[in-house]
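Example 4.3 (complexes with small molecules)
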Amino acid sequence: MAKLPVDPEKLVADFGPHLNYTPREGYAGRDEPDKSVPTHCCFCGMQCGIKLLVKENRVVGFEPWMEFPFNEGRLCPKGVQRYLQDNHPDRLLSPLKRAEGKGFEPVSWDAAMEQTVNAIRRIQEQYGKDAFSVLSGVSLTNEKSYLMGKFARVALKTKNLDYNGRLCMVSAGAGNKKAFGLDRGSNNYSDLKGAEVIFICGANVSETFPTLTYWLWQARDLGAKLIVADPRLIPLARTADLHLDVRPGTDSALYGAMLKYLVDNDLLDHDFINQHTTGFDATIAAVKDYTLEWAETVTGVSKEKIRQAAEWWGKAKTSFLLHARGIEHHSKGVDNVLSCINLVLATGRIGKPYCGYATITGQGNGQGGREHGHKCDQLPGNRDINNPEHRQYIAGVWGIDEKELPGQGYTAYELIEAIHRGEVKGLLSICFNPLVSLPNNNFVREALEKLEFYVAIDFFLNETARYADVVLAGSLHEEEDGTVTTAEGRVTRIRQAVTPPGNARTDTAIILELAARLGAADKFSYNSSEDIFNELRIASKGGTADYYGITYEKIEKNMGVFWPCPTLDHPGTPRLWEDRKFATPDGKAHFNPVNYRPPGEVTDEDYPVVLTTGRVVSQYLSGTQTRRIGKLVDQFPEPLLEIHPELAARYGIRQREKVKVVTRRGEAEFPANIVATIRKDTVFIPYHWPGRKSANQLTPGTLDPVSKIPEFKVCACRLEPSGQISQPGTETAFDSI
Ligand SMILES: Nc1nc2c(c(=O)[nH]1)N[C@H]1C(S)=C(S)[C@@H](COP(=O)(O)OP(=O)(O)OC[C@H]3O[C@@H](n4cnc5c(=O)[nH]c(N)nc54)[C@H](O)[C@@H]3O)O[C@H]1N2
Ligand SMILES: Nc1nc2c(c(=O)[nH]1)N[C@H]1C(S)=C(S)[C@@H](COP(=O)(O)OP(=O)(O)OC[C@H]3O[C@@H](n4cnc5c(=O)[nH]c(N)nc54)[C@H](O)[C@@H]3O)O[C@H]1N2
Ligand code: SF4
Ligand SMILES: [Mo]
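Answer. The structure with MGD bound is encoded below.
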């Protein structure tokens, strides 16, 4: 087992409640702070409110922000310790340039900018505009997400721009747009409190969205039944009324069989189906053969459990369905999402108090960042880059001719393939660590080596940035003003607490200077983040993600505003669809038929075990930030292979024995963590570590045909025990890459 979780008393004794763990010389960390700045956690989509304590332009601690309505001061271990990254010695304090044979050396901003712009110009002149590409990220604020989309299309004039939400939210987004015409969770979470049945599909809420559990406990206290579908008996499932231990990659068979049960037993809302939906007949025709027995064979969940889940779901008067990446990270992620939505629509339980549906957005600004146009197929306001009217409108806002606006480019993983083919020669990345987070990372590494020029903007030298020619020292969440949109759809304010240290700059300042040096200064003249937001409001006006009626002042006054908010006197929309007018062209919610198909890779004689990947509570994404926060590392210092005792016994694997996991892409060794909380045919590896400890050496580049999300949640593997026992804490990844 890993070390025990950190002892809070020891933490306080070591560091004091509000003390930075690397106080610099002459720095009076224990004194009263100069100010307390209400803002939000920089990590997950809950965007918990937090107050940062600032002394001499440094973040030195935090205190709870009790008034912020979602979390009311509560925080998870990452939120509590996030401030410890601020003064980390690895923080980039100056632009860097690759010096042959010497690694990186600091350079002036002028030299770094000039080298970057010259390389962009050369590549675009030699190979065409689209040969230079951009990968962006949604830890960025709405303002920066919008800016990146405009920068790629107007300053670089390239079509090749995509973002890390491609690995995260796109299956949910595509499913929601098909069914509702709009991509946002239908309700804010207060509707959980009062729902009779709560169905959680593929979301490890207690570890990945810890503060959301508070709303679930309140619902349980009021008598809600909790159903959890997950191949692991995750912490939340241990307290659930029903755990559906689904075989990875088979969810649509499970939900399809539940839908058939609702139809066969007439547990349907006929009025809602008749008046407010289309596609019901075709959808139930698709599941007509999905008997409980068939579903048991496909999913591995007993037919009695499936029947029970359908019965509870069907008979409830109020309900809330939530899903996350467990059902979305699949080559049929969109189908899985649609099969969940079909269950919600069949019972008409949406747009009413305590009746809701939502995907749980992952990254900090995973919601806002997927609306403002840094996706390859999207323009601001969640507009479609292929729609002539949408193009015309945005070209007008940006003061360019519609013909100058590039078309649709490659999605993130397709971009890596295009680099391999030699079609794309240059890359700018911001807020993205694709070498760790994309699947099949040996293939990604080869692509990075082929680039003629690569510039990265980050505050740490992440593993991908080590392949860069130039690294531009950017800013942390708390070093710039802006807004984010929480998983609930609430637009809130990020407040600048400190300015970037040393010679680092704000991300916005970097992008604006690059745009100016590329000759687009007139299109990028803003004096503040609020200026950018005010342009975003106009750009989003009339789109499905309409922010026009939201202003900084209104956010301050109301502790956030829920979009859509089309006019200045509009109060915002915490609960969607109360008027039953869906955002589809015909105003109806759309059922979508889902035919079950197997995952991209199934087990066989050579690769007999199912591998799935995901997260642990104390680490975040590619780990760039949380692997630098010592106390979080202590909680989970290294990736372990979760394996059931029976499967372990079949291979003679002992606790903490190093096991080689082999897939068709590669192999990697992990100590075994033998737990009874996982299916007997499945193993699980968390993916927060790089290099030789990266789970993504093993995962496939299979994509969903619609959303182009990679299939992180299922592939086939073989296990080869090594006979060696590993000591806890010795399997860190610092010897990697
Ligand atoms: N601690 C922590 N919190 C985070 C993050 C983090 O990195 N660390 N990241 C944030 C981000 S960006 C995201 S996207 C979210 C992700 O949040 P989650 O989706 O909750 O996290 P995952 O661990 O990726 O996957 C969730 C569950 O899916 C299950 N699963 C695997 N395969 C299947 C399947 O085929 N069907 C079903 N039903 N379940 C399956 C896994 O066992 C796992 O428990 O978390 C956010 N919060
Ligand atoms: N096997 C497997 N792989 C997965 C997943 C999985 O479940 N299994 N999950 C996928 C999912 S859901 C996601 S979201 C992706 C995430 O994958 P990534 O987006 O690549 O992960 P991050 O760690 O967020 O990388 C972001 C980088 O941005 C930097 N950064 C953060 N904030 C800012 C900022 O404000 N400004 C600047 N300039 N830089 C910033 C950080 O320092 C870090 O280096 O991983 C995906 N990969
Ligand atoms: S739940 Fe998410 S937003 Fe809240 S403190 Fe934890 S990581 Fe931060
Ligand atoms: Mo994510």
